[in-house]
Known about the structure:
Layout: E1 6-10, E2 14-15, H1 24-27, H2 36-46, H3 59-69, E3 76-80, E4 86-90, H4 92-103, E5 112-117, H5 123-134, H6 143-156, H7 161-168, H8 174-195, H9 205-211, H10 216-222, H11 227-235, H12 248-252, H13 255-263, H14 266-273, H15 280-284, H16 287-299, H17 303-311, H18 316-334
Parallel strand pairs: 2-4, 3-5
Antiparallel strand pairs: 1-5, 3-4
Helix pairs in contact: 3-4, 6-8, 8-9, 8-11, 13-14
Amino acid sequence: xxxxxxxxxxxxxxxxxxxxxxxxxxxxxxxxxxxxxxxxxxxxxxxxxxxxxxxxxxxxxxxxxxxxxxxxxxxxxxxxxxxxxxxxxxxxxxxxxxxxxxxxxxxxxxxxxxxxxxxxxxxxxxxxxxxxxxxxxxxxxxxxxxxxxxxxxxxxxxxxxxxxxxxxxxxxxxxxxxxxxxxxxxxxxxxxxxxxxxxxxxxxxxxxxxxxxxxxxxxxxxxxxxxxxxxxxxxxxxxxxxxxxxxxxxxxxxxxxxxxxxxxxxxxxxxxxxxxxxxxxxxxxxxxxxxxxxxxxxxxxxxxxxxxxxxxxxxxxxxxxxxxxxxxxxxxxxxxxxxxxx
Length: 342
Protein backbone atom coordinates (compact mmCIF):
# COMPACT_ATOMS: atom_id res chain seq x y z
CA UNK A 1 0.00 0.00 0.00
CA UNK A 2 1.31 3.48 -0.91
CA UNK A 3 2.48 5.45 2.12
CA UNK A 4 0.01 8.21 2.97
CA UNK A 5 1.46 11.69 3.29
CA UNK A 6 -0.04 15.08 4.12
CA UNK A 7 -0.15 17.57 1.25
CA UNK A 8 -1.26 21.21 1.33
CA UNK A 9 -3.82 21.53 -1.45
CA UNK A 10 -5.40 24.75 -2.74
CA UNK A 11 -8.89 25.07 -1.29
CA UNK A 12 -10.01 26.36 -4.70
CA UNK A 13 -9.29 22.90 -6.16
CA UNK A 14 -11.42 21.04 -3.62
CA UNK A 15 -15.03 20.03 -4.27
CA UNK A 16 -17.40 19.35 -1.40
CA UNK A 17 -18.97 15.92 -1.60
CA UNK A 18 -22.72 16.10 -2.24
CA UNK A 19 -23.00 12.49 -0.99
CA UNK A 20 -21.98 13.62 2.49
CA UNK A 21 -24.66 12.15 4.82
CA UNK A 22 -24.50 15.22 7.04
CA UNK A 23 -26.16 17.32 4.33
CA UNK A 24 -28.43 14.57 3.01
CA UNK A 25 -31.60 15.98 4.66
CA UNK A 26 -31.10 19.38 3.00
CA UNK A 27 -30.44 17.86 -0.42
CA UNK A 28 -33.44 15.52 -0.51
CA UNK A 29 -35.54 18.10 -2.36
CA UNK A 30 -32.77 19.13 -4.79
CA UNK A 31 -32.72 17.63 -8.28
CA UNK A 32 -29.40 17.28 -10.05
CA UNK A 33 -26.06 18.44 -8.68
CA UNK A 34 -26.45 21.06 -5.93
CA UNK A 35 -24.28 24.21 -5.99
CA UNK A 36 -21.24 24.17 -3.73
CA UNK A 37 -22.53 27.14 -1.72
CA UNK A 38 -25.76 25.25 -1.03
CA UNK A 39 -23.76 22.33 0.37
CA UNK A 40 -21.85 24.81 2.56
CA UNK A 41 -25.09 26.23 3.93
CA UNK A 42 -26.36 22.72 4.60
CA UNK A 43 -23.15 21.80 6.44
CA UNK A 44 -23.72 24.68 8.82
CA UNK A 45 -27.42 23.96 9.20
CA UNK A 46 -27.16 20.21 9.71
CA UNK A 47 -23.85 19.97 11.54
CA UNK A 48 -24.08 18.61 15.10
CA UNK A 49 -25.46 21.17 17.55
CA UNK A 50 -25.81 21.43 21.29
CA UNK A 51 -29.07 19.49 21.27
CA UNK A 52 -27.38 16.36 19.92
CA UNK A 53 -26.41 14.41 23.02
CA UNK A 54 -23.72 12.36 21.27
CA UNK A 55 -22.16 15.23 19.34
CA UNK A 56 -18.62 15.98 20.47
CA UNK A 57 -18.39 19.36 18.74
CA UNK A 58 -20.58 22.01 17.16
CA UNK A 59 -20.08 23.74 13.83
CA UNK A 60 -19.47 27.06 15.57
CA UNK A 61 -17.08 25.63 18.17
CA UNK A 62 -15.10 23.78 15.49
CA UNK A 63 -14.85 27.00 13.51
CA UNK A 64 -13.69 28.89 16.60
CA UNK A 65 -11.09 26.21 17.32
CA UNK A 66 -9.72 26.28 13.77
CA UNK A 67 -9.60 30.08 13.83
CA UNK A 68 -7.73 30.09 17.16
CA UNK A 69 -5.28 27.38 16.08
CA UNK A 70 -4.98 29.02 12.63
CA UNK A 71 -5.31 25.65 10.95
CA UNK A 72 -6.21 21.98 11.33
CA UNK A 73 -4.95 19.31 13.65
CA UNK A 74 -6.54 16.52 11.59
CA UNK A 75 -6.09 16.69 7.80
CA UNK A 76 -8.99 16.08 5.45
CA UNK A 77 -9.15 13.08 3.09
CA UNK A 78 -9.68 13.62 -0.63
CA UNK A 79 -9.57 11.66 -3.86
CA UNK A 80 -8.25 13.19 -7.12
CA UNK A 81 -10.35 13.66 -10.25
CA UNK A 82 -9.26 13.54 -13.88
CA UNK A 83 -9.76 17.31 -14.25
CA UNK A 84 -7.24 18.11 -11.51
CA UNK A 85 -9.85 18.77 -8.85
CA UNK A 86 -10.20 16.83 -5.59
CA UNK A 87 -13.41 15.53 -4.02
CA UNK A 88 -13.65 15.46 -0.24
CA UNK A 89 -14.21 12.01 1.25
CA UNK A 90 -13.86 13.09 4.88
CA UNK A 91 -13.68 16.70 6.01
CA UNK A 92 -16.42 18.62 4.20
CA UNK A 93 -17.17 20.78 7.24
CA UNK A 94 -13.51 21.73 7.69
CA UNK A 95 -13.22 22.77 4.02
CA UNK A 96 -16.38 24.86 4.39
CA UNK A 97 -14.95 26.54 7.49
CA UNK A 98 -11.69 27.31 5.66
CA UNK A 99 -13.71 29.02 2.91
CA UNK A 100 -15.67 31.03 5.45
CA UNK A 101 -12.54 32.14 7.30
CA UNK A 102 -10.93 33.19 4.01
CA UNK A 103 -13.99 35.30 3.14
CA UNK A 104 -13.92 36.83 6.62
CA UNK A 105 -10.22 37.62 6.17
CA UNK A 106 -9.48 35.92 9.49
CA UNK A 107 -5.86 35.92 10.62
CA UNK A 108 -4.18 32.84 9.15
CA UNK A 109 -3.42 31.05 5.87
CA UNK A 110 -6.69 29.68 4.46
CA UNK A 111 -5.72 29.29 0.78
CA UNK A 112 -4.37 25.77 1.26
CA UNK A 113 -5.56 22.97 3.54
CA UNK A 114 -3.68 19.91 4.88
CA UNK A 115 -4.96 16.86 3.03
CA UNK A 116 -4.37 13.15 2.64
CA UNK A 117 -4.82 12.22 -1.02
CA UNK A 118 -6.18 8.73 -1.62
CA UNK A 119 -5.47 7.60 -5.18
CA UNK A 120 -7.55 4.87 -6.85
CA UNK A 121 -9.85 4.68 -3.86
CA UNK A 122 -12.70 2.27 -4.57
CA UNK A 123 -16.24 3.05 -3.42
CA UNK A 124 -16.03 0.51 -0.58
CA UNK A 125 -12.93 2.30 0.66
CA UNK A 126 -14.85 5.58 0.74
CA UNK A 127 -17.59 3.94 2.78
CA UNK A 128 -15.02 2.62 5.24
CA UNK A 129 -13.47 6.07 5.75
CA UNK A 130 -16.85 7.74 6.32
CA UNK A 131 -18.08 5.07 8.71
CA UNK A 132 -14.87 5.01 10.74
CA UNK A 133 -14.91 8.79 11.10
CA UNK A 134 -18.60 9.41 11.70
CA UNK A 135 -20.28 6.23 12.90
CA UNK A 136 -17.70 5.15 15.46
CA UNK A 137 -15.45 8.21 15.45
CA UNK A 138 -15.64 11.48 17.42
CA UNK A 139 -17.43 13.55 14.75
CA UNK A 140 -20.63 11.60 14.51
CA UNK A 141 -23.43 12.46 12.10
CA UNK A 142 -26.88 13.30 13.33
CA UNK A 143 -29.04 10.21 13.82
CA UNK A 144 -31.20 10.74 10.71
CA UNK A 145 -28.19 11.37 8.46
CA UNK A 146 -26.44 8.32 9.91
CA UNK A 147 -29.51 6.17 9.27
CA UNK A 148 -29.96 7.47 5.72
CA UNK A 149 -26.38 6.53 4.88
CA UNK A 150 -26.64 3.08 6.50
CA UNK A 151 -29.94 2.44 4.72
CA UNK A 152 -28.36 3.41 1.40
CA UNK A 153 -25.44 1.06 1.96
CA UNK A 154 -27.78 -1.79 2.86
CA UNK A 155 -30.63 -1.29 0.38
CA UNK A 156 -28.97 0.43 -2.60
CA UNK A 157 -25.32 -0.61 -2.39
CA UNK A 158 -26.43 -4.11 -1.32
CA UNK A 159 -23.87 -4.37 1.46
CA UNK A 160 -24.72 -6.94 4.11
CA UNK A 161 -24.93 -5.99 7.78
CA UNK A 162 -21.71 -7.95 8.35
CA UNK A 163 -19.91 -5.97 5.64
CA UNK A 164 -21.03 -2.70 7.20
CA UNK A 165 -19.91 -3.99 10.59
CA UNK A 166 -16.47 -4.78 9.18
CA UNK A 167 -16.06 -1.11 8.28
CA UNK A 168 -17.10 -0.13 11.80
CA UNK A 169 -14.66 -2.43 13.51
CA UNK A 170 -16.68 -5.46 14.53
CA UNK A 171 -20.03 -6.58 15.93
CA UNK A 172 -20.29 -4.07 18.78
CA UNK A 173 -22.74 -1.85 16.88
CA UNK A 174 -24.80 -4.51 15.16
CA UNK A 175 -27.93 -3.77 17.14
CA UNK A 176 -27.62 -0.02 16.56
CA UNK A 177 -27.09 -0.43 12.82
CA UNK A 178 -30.05 -2.77 12.45
CA UNK A 179 -32.27 -0.43 14.47
CA UNK A 180 -31.24 2.61 12.43
CA UNK A 181 -31.90 0.91 9.09
CA UNK A 182 -35.32 -0.34 10.24
CA UNK A 183 -36.17 3.05 11.80
CA UNK A 184 -35.24 4.92 8.61
CA UNK A 185 -37.44 2.59 6.58
CA UNK A 186 -40.38 3.09 8.98
CA UNK A 187 -39.97 6.87 8.98
CA UNK A 188 -39.81 7.04 5.17
CA UNK A 189 -42.80 4.74 4.76
CA UNK A 190 -45.13 6.17 7.40
CA UNK A 191 -44.01 9.64 8.55
CA UNK A 192 -42.78 11.32 5.36
CA UNK A 193 -46.11 10.86 3.52
CA UNK A 194 -47.81 12.66 6.42
CA UNK A 195 -45.72 15.83 6.12
CA UNK A 196 -46.03 15.94 2.32
CA UNK A 197 -44.44 19.11 0.96
CA UNK A 198 -43.81 20.53 4.43
CA UNK A 199 -40.37 20.50 6.01
CA UNK A 200 -39.92 17.22 7.95
CA UNK A 201 -38.84 17.40 11.56
CA UNK A 202 -35.78 15.16 11.49
CA UNK A 203 -35.52 15.14 15.28
CA UNK A 204 -38.61 12.87 15.22
CA UNK A 205 -36.36 10.12 13.89
CA UNK A 206 -35.42 9.19 17.46
CA UNK A 207 -39.01 8.07 18.07
CA UNK A 208 -38.71 5.60 15.19
CA UNK A 209 -35.47 4.27 16.65
CA UNK A 210 -37.27 3.68 19.96
CA UNK A 211 -40.02 1.91 18.02
CA UNK A 212 -37.50 -0.83 17.21
CA UNK A 213 -36.93 -1.65 20.90
CA UNK A 214 -38.11 -5.07 22.11
CA UNK A 215 -41.88 -5.43 22.41
CA UNK A 216 -42.76 -1.86 21.33
CA UNK A 217 -43.81 -2.50 17.75
CA UNK A 218 -45.55 -5.72 18.79
CA UNK A 219 -47.50 -3.80 21.45
CA UNK A 220 -48.72 -1.26 18.90
CA UNK A 221 -49.98 -3.97 16.54
CA UNK A 222 -51.41 -6.07 19.36
CA UNK A 223 -53.47 -3.07 20.51
CA UNK A 224 -55.04 -2.82 17.06
CA UNK A 225 -53.00 0.08 15.67
CA UNK A 226 -50.71 0.40 12.63
CA UNK A 227 -47.39 2.03 11.89
CA UNK A 228 -49.34 4.82 10.18
CA UNK A 229 -51.07 5.42 13.52
CA UNK A 230 -47.69 5.55 15.22
CA UNK A 231 -46.44 8.09 12.68
CA UNK A 232 -49.49 10.26 13.37
CA UNK A 233 -48.80 10.09 17.12
CA UNK A 234 -45.24 11.24 16.47
CA UNK A 235 -46.35 13.98 14.09
CA UNK A 236 -48.99 15.21 16.56
CA UNK A 237 -46.42 15.25 19.41
CA UNK A 238 -48.39 12.71 21.43
CA UNK A 239 -45.06 11.01 22.06
CA UNK A 240 -42.60 13.48 23.57
CA UNK A 241 -39.81 13.13 24.50
CA UNK A 242 -38.99 10.31 22.12
CA UNK A 243 -37.92 7.86 24.82
CA UNK A 244 -41.53 7.68 26.04
CA UNK A 245 -42.07 5.40 23.05
CA UNK A 246 -40.68 2.65 25.29
CA UNK A 247 -43.69 3.06 27.54
CA UNK A 248 -46.22 2.21 24.80
CA UNK A 249 -46.51 -1.46 25.85
CA UNK A 250 -47.56 -0.35 29.34
CA UNK A 251 -49.73 2.51 28.10
CA UNK A 252 -51.58 0.51 25.47
CA UNK A 253 -52.00 -2.39 27.87
CA UNK A 254 -53.83 -0.24 30.42
CA UNK A 255 -57.37 0.88 29.53
CA UNK A 256 -57.29 4.18 31.43
CA UNK A 257 -53.74 5.08 30.35
CA UNK A 258 -54.61 4.25 26.75
CA UNK A 259 -57.57 6.67 26.85
CA UNK A 260 -55.37 9.43 28.24
CA UNK A 261 -52.74 8.79 25.59
CA UNK A 262 -55.13 8.87 22.65
CA UNK A 263 -56.93 11.99 23.91
CA UNK A 264 -53.87 13.83 25.22
CA UNK A 265 -50.32 12.41 25.11
CA UNK A 266 -47.90 9.87 26.56
CA UNK A 267 -46.89 12.06 29.49
CA UNK A 268 -50.46 12.27 30.74
CA UNK A 269 -50.87 8.54 30.21
CA UNK A 270 -47.79 7.86 32.32
CA UNK A 271 -49.33 9.77 35.22
CA UNK A 272 -52.05 7.12 35.30
CA UNK A 273 -49.45 4.34 35.46
CA UNK A 274 -47.21 6.06 37.97
CA UNK A 275 -49.65 6.46 40.84
CA UNK A 276 -47.99 6.66 44.28
CA UNK A 277 -46.91 3.22 45.40
CA UNK A 278 -48.56 1.61 48.40
CA UNK A 279 -45.06 0.76 49.60
CA UNK A 280 -43.62 4.08 50.76
CA UNK A 281 -40.21 2.48 51.34
CA UNK A 282 -39.80 1.85 47.61
CA UNK A 283 -40.62 5.46 46.77
CA UNK A 284 -38.11 6.73 49.32
CA UNK A 285 -35.31 4.30 48.41
CA UNK A 286 -32.19 5.72 46.77
CA UNK A 287 -31.08 4.75 43.27
CA UNK A 288 -28.20 2.79 44.80
CA UNK A 289 -30.55 0.86 47.10
CA UNK A 290 -32.94 0.05 44.27
CA UNK A 291 -30.09 -1.05 41.99
CA UNK A 292 -28.64 -3.31 44.67
CA UNK A 293 -32.06 -4.77 45.43
CA UNK A 294 -32.77 -5.46 41.75
CA UNK A 295 -29.35 -7.06 41.23
CA UNK A 296 -29.87 -9.24 44.30
CA UNK A 297 -33.34 -10.24 43.14
CA UNK A 298 -32.07 -11.21 39.70
CA UNK A 299 -29.22 -13.26 41.16
CA UNK A 300 -31.73 -15.20 43.26
CA UNK A 301 -33.99 -16.13 40.35
CA UNK A 302 -34.45 -19.85 39.90
CA UNK A 303 -34.77 -21.71 36.61
CA UNK A 304 -38.62 -21.79 36.53
CA UNK A 305 -38.67 -17.98 36.84
CA UNK A 306 -36.18 -17.57 34.00
CA UNK A 307 -38.05 -20.09 31.86
CA UNK A 308 -41.34 -18.27 32.48
CA UNK A 309 -39.79 -14.96 31.39
CA UNK A 310 -38.39 -16.55 28.24
CA UNK A 311 -41.85 -17.85 27.30
CA UNK A 312 -43.93 -14.80 28.22
CA UNK A 313 -42.27 -11.82 26.56
CA UNK A 314 -45.53 -9.87 26.58
CA UNK A 315 -46.11 -10.16 30.33
CA UNK A 316 -46.02 -7.04 32.49
CA UNK A 317 -42.97 -8.40 34.32
CA UNK A 318 -41.05 -8.98 31.09
CA UNK A 319 -41.99 -5.54 29.76
CA UNK A 320 -40.95 -3.89 33.03
CA UNK A 321 -37.55 -5.64 32.92
CA UNK A 322 -37.04 -4.70 29.28
CA UNK A 323 -37.88 -1.06 30.01
CA UNK A 324 -35.57 -1.04 33.05
CA UNK A 325 -32.74 -2.47 30.94
CA UNK A 326 -33.13 0.20 28.25
CA UNK A 327 -33.15 3.02 30.81
CA UNK A 328 -30.12 1.62 32.64
CA UNK A 329 -28.28 1.06 29.36
CA UNK A 330 -28.83 4.67 28.26
CA UNK A 331 -27.91 6.07 31.68
CA UNK A 332 -24.69 4.06 31.83
CA UNK A 333 -23.70 5.23 28.34
CA UNK A 334 -24.47 8.88 29.14
CA UNK A 335 -22.45 8.75 32.36
CA UNK A 336 -19.50 6.86 30.90
CA UNK A 337 -20.16 3.74 32.94
CA UNK A 338 -20.66 1.87 29.68
CA UNK A 339 -18.55 2.35 26.56
CA UNK A 340 -20.34 3.97 23.60
CA UNK A 341 -20.06 0.85 21.45
CA UNK A 342 -21.42 -1.56 24.07
